[in-house]
Every structure is written in C-alpha cells, then in structure tokens.
Amino acid sequence: MADGSFAGGNGTKDNPYLIEDAFDLDAVRNNLKSHYRLIKNIDLNIDPFNKGWTPIGQTGTGYTSFEGTLDGYSHVVSNLIINQSKLNRVGLFARIDNSLVENLGIQDANVVGDTYVGILAGHAESSTIKNCITTGVLSGNSDIGGLLGSVGASSFIDKCLTMSVIEIGEKTGGLIGTSWRKSSSVTNSFWDKEISGEVNSVGGVGLTTEEMKNPQTFIDAGWEHELNEDGEKVWILKNGEYPRLRFDTKDKTLFLNNNKYYKYKDKQWKEVSSSLPSTDQFKEHGMEDLSVFNRNVQPITNNPFNMTSEETDEGKLFKTKVDLKKFFDLRSLKIK
Length: 336
Description:
mainly beta, 13-stranded parallel β-sheet
C-alpha cells in the first residue's frame, strides 16, 4: 500500500506517479499539473472516502482545474460517492483543463451535485478524454451527464461510453449534459439510452442495451485497435456483454476444484478449463498477476525435511526464502 505516497514515479510525462490505492488517488489533488498512472483497480468504499469523495480540484466553494494527465491503464475506480447538493462542478474531478484522461473506468458511482455534474468531471475545457467508461447514478439541478456535466472549447472526447442513470435534473444528456461552446468534438462514443432514459446528449450516440452489447458496434467504431503502452488491448469486447476495460475484474475470479478451473457467473458455476488456463483465459477472467506461468513444479518425495527448532527459529517453517507466487504445493509434510 502506497497510502498517498505513490508506488513509484516522479510525476513527469515519462515517469508518472503510480497510483495503487485510494489514498494515492486522493493525493492527485496535491499536484494538479503532474502525470499519473493507475497500476491497480481502486475501490473507494473505504474510510474516509465512503463517507463522500471531495472532487479533485475542489477548494471550498471554488475549484482549481486539473491540468495534468491520468492514464487509467485499463483499470477501474469503483464506488465513487459524492453528496454535494449545493456544489457546482462535481465528479471525480471538479474540472479538467488542458489535460488528458484516458483508459479509465469509473463504476458504481453515486454522484449528487448542484450544477455541472458528471461522473468523470463536472466540466472539461480544452482537454482530451479517451477510452473512458462510467456507470452509476447522478442527480442535481442542471447540466448533468453520465461522463461530463458540461464541456467547453476545444475538447476532444473519443471512444467513451456510459451506462448511467440521471434521476433528477434539467439540461441533462446521456453522455454530456451541456456545451458552453461548439468547438469541441465527440467521436465514436455512446450511451445506453434505455438505462439512462436520455434521448439527447452533447455528442455521442444513444444506443439500445442490445446494441451496446453487440461487439460489432464498437469494432466498427475502431475500439478493438486501441492499445495500452504495453501493446495489450484497452478493451475487451464480447458478445452479449458491455465493453469493459482490460483490468475490469469485478466479480471475476477463477477457482480450482478437482483439477478443473471454474468461474461463478449468472448465479452458477461455469467451467473455464480442465487444465491450466491459457494466458488469454487468465486475462479474460480477472487475473492481473500472471506470474503463475513462471512457476517451476518440483515434486519432493521420499526426502522428508529434518529440521529442529534451532534451525527454523520460532514461527518459521523454511530456512530459505520461499516465493509463494510459484505455487508450492505441499502434499505431505511431517515435522518432528
């Protein structure tokens, strides 16, 4: 846990600060012109953030714009909770200006504000937002959108989508609520008009749920060609499912039982593989750390350990360091 001190980096474009927990994400507000990258999914359902997130850049009743870059690296921030019914410019960010936000998901958000209310940001000005996805519930007085509350001049939004519900408000839009100027562009971006109930938006295309779960919709829009810096695809596109980011592992875990691998989905167990799953299967079903593929299986039989308490010290089992990532499987261990 970096706990606000970041897991690495120095904040430059070539060496961004590495965000691995909620406290690191919160620390972005301390330097609004630096460069950041997520290296893990972030759950904000921990104290104190589950009592309410303060939009990054908010300063009392005012704000300071985020002017850096944030690369989600296909990771997801979940359980964003904001309850600021008298506050303008409400979202994960209050306002972004001359910034880049990409490859980021925000799931299960619950955002309440006054005006300029969006899950990603209350307002965007002269910024690029690319490969972002949001889900959740929003409410406010006006200028409310599933991604952005409003957008100003010279912004570029590409390959973004939202499945969000706007409960209360005027001047609302499925993807973006309102536009201050007409010089921004929104391309290859969508919202679920059945979930949101919104038929209008500043840019983007409203689709039915069925259309949103058809991979061809997004293949035709060029989504399958989006890559992270490591060359891996940003998006996972599967028939019958909404697009999701590569490291969106919510409720996706592999279990091993009787030498077969299973996942639990749709209230039932489904077999994934009867042998060691492939790299692609691990990625598909939620494994971020693929070090299992580097394991060395070395069975030890008829060669029991003979260790005394003096050799092992109290509370220790092995004299040498054991790398647990290599999946040691101790079938029989006798201690005298």
